[in-house]
Amino acid sequence: MKKTINVVAAVIENENNEILCALRSHDMSIPNKWEFPGGKVEVGESLHDALEREITEELQCKIVAGEVIHEHTHEYESFIVHLTCLHTRIIEGIPHSTEHAKLIWLPKENLNSIIWAPADIPVVKVIMQKA
Ligand SMILES: Nc1nc2c([nH]c(=O)n2[C@H]2C[C@H](O)[C@@H](COP(=O)(O)OP(=O)(O)OP(=O)(O)O)O2)c(=O)[nH]1
Fold it and tell me: Does the keyword section mention Aminoacyl-tRNA synthetase (predicted)?
């Protein structure tokens, strides 16, 4: 049976209505695809706590996590991901990549100009509808 992992990801918007997009590196799972920064929720952790922890580790800045934008389940070939994306804003620092190949800020209306991890496509559509 395929394993299901619970993942929480940050839709980080700046004052220019741009969204932070992170490129998975060639040595990660789902390589060379764009995603929203975040990661797996640990046992006993709330979504908000998990996201704030992951962003501190991954981007070396502090965010505050807000409402859920979208959540759904996507089945990959070897595992299933339950992805919850939260609206967030940075409260301290500037994002620096510690794990990703690249970070870019993209205007909401251009989010479909890059190749997203398949699980992210529904949330990208939701964000673009609100652009
Ligand atoms: N953080 C994040 N992960 C995503 C997104 N979309 C998506 O399919 N995923 C997948 C990629 C990973 O397999 C998993 C997230 O786990 P992770 O961030 O701990 O991934 P990882 O590469 O560090 O871990 P691993 O797969 O090497 O064990 O969920 C997304 O938008 N953000």
Answer: no
Give the span between the Cα atoms of 12 and 18, in whole angstroms: 8
| 99 CA: nearest ligand 1 atom | 23
User: What mean pLDDT do residues 61-81 have?
Assistant: 97
Please count the other Cβ atoms lying within 10 Å of the Cβ belonging to residue 110.
Answer: 13
Q: Considering its fold, how many domains does the chain have in total?
A: 1
Here the CATH number for the domain that contains residue 70 is: 3.90.79.10
Contact in structure between 14 and 91 (CB atoms under 8 Å):
no
Full residue range of the structural domain in which residue 8 is found: 3-129
Cα(87) to ligand 1 centroid in Å equals 18
Q: What is the pLDDT of residues 32-63, one digit of tens each?
A: 999 999 999 999 999 999 999 999 999 999 99
